[in-house]
Amino acid sequence: MNPCDDRPATGPGGAAHARLELEHFLPYRLSVLSNRVSSAIARVYSERFGLGVTEWRVMAVLGRYPDLSAGEVAQRTAMDKVAVSRAVARLVDAGQLRRDTHGDDRRRSVLRLSRAGYAIYDEVAPHALAFEARLLEGFDAGERELLFRLLDRLDELELKAEAQAF
Description:
Blueprint: H1 26-49, H2 53-64, H3 70-77, H4 81-93, E1 97-102, E2 105-113, H5 115-136, H6 141-164
Helix pairs in contact: 1-5, 2-3, 2-5, 3-4
């Protein structure tokens, strides 16, 4: 079948199949865009500090919100708990994160950037902000505001849909 053809794909015996046009499928487009943007900014912290996307996201969250548990970091980043746990272990081993107990609750550990971690954070964060500014420079203030409102709305709707799915 010609990929530009609008007819549904057919399989053996001529059975019609559903037609999913990825170029118009929002989850696919968001994923591709997210991967492209993440990969572009990752070059800054990967080449200079040997950090992957997951490690940087953990550091970025803890730079803004110190003393979170690994589970709270996973929740704020919407990343898999296992991936966050592995990133935390690598960052602790590299001396970029500290793991402490939470006040009087010896069962709960919290994470915070070490001095070395803050040095990296303080160097990468301005690059990340400059990258974002370049990414959005073609939008006027109203378009930027609309974009973020729409993203917030999609996030809100997705969470509702996820809760109702089962």
